Amino acid sequence: MNLKKPNASSATGTYNRSRNVVPMSGLCVDCIDGCTGGCEAWLSSFRGREVIYPGPFGKITAGADKDYPIDYSHLNIQGYAVGAQGLPEGVEPGPDTAIFPKVDTQTEYGWDKKVKMKVPIFTGALGSTEIARVNWEHFAIGAAISGVTLVCGENVCGIDPDLVRDSEGKVKSSPEMDRRIEIYKRFHEGYGELLVQMNVEDTRLGVAEYVSSKHDFETIELKWGQGAKCIGGEIKVGSLDRALELKKRGYIVTPDPSNPDVQRAFKEGEIKEFERHSRLGFVEKQSFMAEIDRLRDLGFKRITLKTGAYSQAELAMALRYGAEAKLDLITLDGAPGGTGMSPWPMMNEWGIPTFYLQSLAYAFIKRLKKKGMQTPDLAMAGGFSGEDGVFKALAMGAPHFKAVCMGRALMIPGMVGKNIGKWIKQDTLPKTVSKYGTNAGEIFVTYEELREKYGSELKNIPLGAIGIYTFSQKIRVGLQQLMAGSRNFNLSTISRNDLMALTQEASEVSKIPYVMDAYHNQAMEILDG
């Protein structure tokens, strides 16, 4: 059985002509001379490197579609007919007190100074991609009013068209970064925070110094990588002048826009776009610890880390170094990734998948704990979209995992809400939406709730933000129901005992009891009693 779907994908705009496809290669069984398209091998024959990336750039987010042997669907949640854990102190468990709307879904993370969130989810890194820039107002306000953390990803300052650098090449002014921060701060209500990420280029540009001095930031996030790819971030650039500008700022730009032959090919239409790439990071313990000290000297009270689906060695480095550095949160992003601009083959074919990565992380944390070490709070990322996945990730990693990071799943409601607003103005609502109503109040189930809370200020909240809020409320209520069924009325009481593995292989990897073994001894005691 082939776990991947090679040589044709809607992400790259490619398809097989034949209904019969060779499983290993993805090529049509009967490849015909004269075929007019359009598998990846066919399109790559004349568009070459362009076919590596999902498209159209700036219009889509793409999620890898490889089928792994084990994922979270191989776990089920335990339900119980007795008990109620986590009710407020002094409340007696019973049918009138242990009701699902009373479940507390709040979480917190941090080493000393905690950050609280109303729901145990937060956004993936929304950085220099075009889709993040054009939708930022919806994403930022949506996260703020939902009471969750928002991650402003890498390279935002570096690609800012209006970036001003000082004589040493450091950020002096970045209107785009200012805009992003100010939008979130305007609606921030004390839950969650804005995390600005830094990669190699951001560090060289002095992004930490800029957001610390101008915006008085308390938290900064270091970026080792993500589940979507094991190389630095990329964007596409459709202008020669822009490509040259980004190269002057120190980025890797391909093909080389300063090459006269490349310039000629671009002007004649042979080359239609350039790619801006970030550099690979090189992690070394001494320099990592020195960077943590430097950031604390700049005034940052919290430092977090985002890392990807690297080998077990890098996972161990992240957890061990993070513990010694007293990091406030480490987000582990498993394969397969989802992104707006990553190489499609890499998204599908590299890295440790999320289920396996979290299983390893749990085992590694236990090992560090046995040594008497305090470890950072953790978050899991890599393919989550619903409350069932949130519950399973928190339970499988309990008590160390405090939240789930969602990438595309939290972007989608922002774009949906934005487009509903556009369709209302144009009077072009599709039937899939108009069956619920013709204005925002009728369409969005949370609209009246938000009107009551914000009053006239609601007019300044875009519909994309209301979409994210509505989505987060669905996650919250769904999570409340799953938690109540497992008799957990506070996130802190969820444990690995609340899960069972449906396959022996999933049990072997995760060390979650197999369904036929879970609670078996207790059952026998009841039968024999």
User: Which ranges are low-confidence, i.e. pLDDT below 50, for 5 or more consecutive residues?
Assistant: none
Gyration radius, rounded: 24 Å
Number of helices: 20
Assembly state (oligomeric): single chain
Strand order of the largest sheet: 5-19-18-16-15-11-10-7-6
List the helices and strands and how they pair.
Blueprint: H1 40-47, E1 62-63, E2 75-77, E3 107-109, E4 115-117, E5 121-123, E6 125-126, H2 130-134, H3 136-146, E7 150-152, E8 164-165, E9 171-173, H4 175-187, E10 194-198, H5 200-205, H6 207-215, E11 219-223, E12 234-237, H7 240-248, E13 252-254, H8 260-267, E14 274-277, H9 285-297, E15 302-307, H10 312-325, E16 329-333, E17 338-339, H11 344-349, H12 354-370, E18 378-381, H13 387-396, E19 401-406, H14 408-426, H15 431-434, H16 440-443, H17 447-454, H18 463-485, E20 499-501, H19 504-510, H20 520-528
Parallel strand pairs: 5-19, 6-7, 7-10, 10-11, 11-15, 15-16, 16-18, 18-19
Antiparallel strand pairs: 1-17, 2-20, 3-4, 8-9, 12-14, 13-14
